[in-house]
Amino acid sequence: MLKKESNQTNCNLCKSSDVVVLYVSEVKGVSRTYLHCNYCDLVFVPSIFHLTSLEQKKRYLEHNNDINDPDYRKFLFRLWKYMKPILPNGANGLDYGAGPGPALVQMIIEDGYNIAPYDPIFYPNQDLLEKSYHFITSTETFEHFSNPGIEIKKLKELLKPNGILGIMTSMLTSWIDFPDWYYHRDPTHIAFYSKHTMEWIAGQFLWDIEFPRENVVLFKS
Predict the structure, then answer these.
(1) What does the pLDDT read at residue 65?
(2) Is the CB of residue 197 less than 8 Å from the CB of residue 41?
(3) Beta carbons within 10 angstroms of residue 89's beta carbon
(4) What is the pLDDT of residue 31?
């Protein structure tokens, strides 16, 4: 078995040193450690276990992100159905972490809104990060953040006053179930959130928060 050792002692979100080992996985002869922060409740993978950009890209291209796939569009609509009714006319948005097939961007454009895709690997247009937006979507992206605190601060800076950040990411109600959870088996998934974590984020960034359905979170600035 290939075993790596991590000496990381601070949370990737809140920087607290109150972290403990939650679980150590062994997949195909490779071990990976998951740390739990007792302060913000994030579970995260230490940086020594993170994939390179090329390894990540290879994994992302294995996903089915066909913009015309009705099942994929139905999945993404779980977020958009709650955002669309509360957006002002003419709202402009950013899809942060769009991936190789920005289906949500296409759906939102079809509904008459302006939105652009940003992704550090597939759509790395830095000019988009110099603007501000009425709304930001981030579907199945937060779990890929190597430094969630930095990324979320960036998203806050991109939002206009009274803006909306809508995210989708799988969450557990109890970390006791983590060992049997499918979500951590994807090697690109390195940050895992609970409702408590999301509430901590809302408090830290002075956002209102809603959980309109399972695994969907709305932050309002």
Answers:
(1) 66
(2) yes
(3) 6
(4) 87
List, for the chain, all residue ranges whose pLDDT scores fall below the cut of 50.
1-2
Domain boundaries along the sequence of the chain: 52-173+195-220
Q: Out of 1.10.1660.10, 3.40.50.150, 3.40.47.40, 3.40.50.720, which CATH number does the structure's domain 52-173+195-220 have?
A: 3.40.50.150
Residue 111 DSSP SS3 = coil
Q: What pLDDT does 186 receive?
A: 92
Give how far the C-alpha of residue 78 lies from the chain's centroid of Cα atoms, to the nearest Å. 15
Residue ranges with strand state E in 56-180: 92-96, 114-118, 133-139, 159-168
Residue 16's φ and ψ, nearest 5 degrees, are -65, 150
pLDDT digits 0-9 by tens, 81-114: 999 999 998 899 999 999 888 999 999 999 999 9
Question: Which residue's structure tokens are 């969630």?
Answer: 148
Is the overall model pTM greater than 0.70, yes or no? yes
CA–CA dist 176, 197 (Å, integer): 16
HSE on the CB side for 68, CA within 13 Å?
Answer: 0
